[in-house]
Amino acid sequence: MIQAIKNIFQLGKKEILSLCRDGLLMALIVYSFTAAIIVASNASTDFADAAIAVVDEDQSQLSQRLSDAFQPPLFLPVEIIQRNDIDRTMDEGRYTFVVVFPVDLEKDVMAHMTPDIQVNVDATRMSQAFTGAGYIQQILFSEVQKFVKDNSGDSSASAANIVIRNRYNPNLYGSWFNALMQLANNIAMLAIILTGSALITEREKGTLEHLLVMPVTPFQIMASKIWSMMLVVMVAALTGLFLVVRMYLQIPLAGSYMLFALGMALYLFALTSLGIFLACMSQNMPQLGLLIILVLMPLEMLSGSSTPQESMPVWVQRVMQFAPTTHFVNITQGILFRGAGLRAMWPTFLKLFLIGAGLFTLSLGRFRKSVA
Question: In terms of domains, do 259 and 302 share one?
């Protein structure tokens, strides 16, 4: 037993030294937990800085108030144009939205009529068109209601006031979410790539056959690759979490780092086992790369890191309960955003451990068969 542990340790140390001599993989590790996180954080999909113009044919107090309601950071400063400039300026792509206030707008509103306000939308800008149209509708409705109330002399209080408080991310910064989810995705990518490439490289260089004639078992070979790559990815990920996410991006992290590290260890145990399995199914590095794309992309896209699983079909939600990425996304959001403790997260930890044990057993059987 002691000799087996020594063999696993020495073989794992060899894997780490081999990785350190691979400049390309080391550069990938550094990039994945530094620049990749920063780029993902800055590439926010939040609605902001939409170009808007107004055609004010009413020239009233209400129309001026509505024009002033379109404020940064949602919109760029409003530009006043004429009606005959609408088609030309939108064809040129100068504005995403052009709002037209008709003649006698204020007069009709105060007479309790329902005048039409035209909103022209450049739908080719899909990232802003749909969301921005909704914002404009809300702004116009809210400002008209306030204007009518202010000028009707009705000072009675409403029956109820709606007060919205945002938990965990009060200012709704998309960069916070994007940075942590990019960190989680990069952990998955590197865990599979490093473990799979370690096995493929030994097979291509012929050193795997040398190991098999030594007094070591397939279990020891596989375990050494798993613990060494787990250690490398965990150290790199925690370093990126502290230096990039916490210090450089100034994203507040609420929960226990030790608890998050424990969840990451279980996650890496599952994914490194998956990396061994994919490497056993591949003959060379190009085949491994294709398999990683086919496996990793669905795991990340359906894990809830980009789209809530509640919005997916029920059968997809059930299938993804067997994916380690789903549970690690829950761990990341639960611990680092909401400050959840072990009492709340232990069921997720248990599921992740069982998935990892299943993948390890499956990969060990496949590895033994491939080297037989």
Answer: yes
Per the CB < 8 A criterion, the answer to whether 191 and 228 are in contact is no
Give the amino acid at 322: F
| pLDDT at 302 exceeding the cut of 80 | yes
Query: Domain range for residue 293?
Result: 2-43+173-371
CB 163 within 8 A of CB 243: no
Does residue 117 lie within any of the structural domains?
A: yes
Q: Which residues pair with 79 in a beta bridge?
A: 53
Distances (CA, A) of 265 to 6, 149, 158: 21, 59, 53
- The C-alpha atoms of residue 51 and residue 92 are separated, in whole angstroms, by 12
- Residue 76 in this model has a pLDDT that exceeds 80: yes
First to last CA, the chain: 23
Tell me: do 196 and 270 sit in the same domain: yes
| Position 328 pLDDT exceeds 70 | yes
Boundary of a domain, candidates 152, 183, 213: 152
Both tokens of 323, joined, read: 């994916």
267 and 309 co-located in one domain? yes
Last residue of a domain, one of 152, 184, 212: 152
Report the alpha-carbon distance of residue 286 to residue 194 in Å, rounded: 14
Residue 230 has pLDDT above 70, yes or no: yes
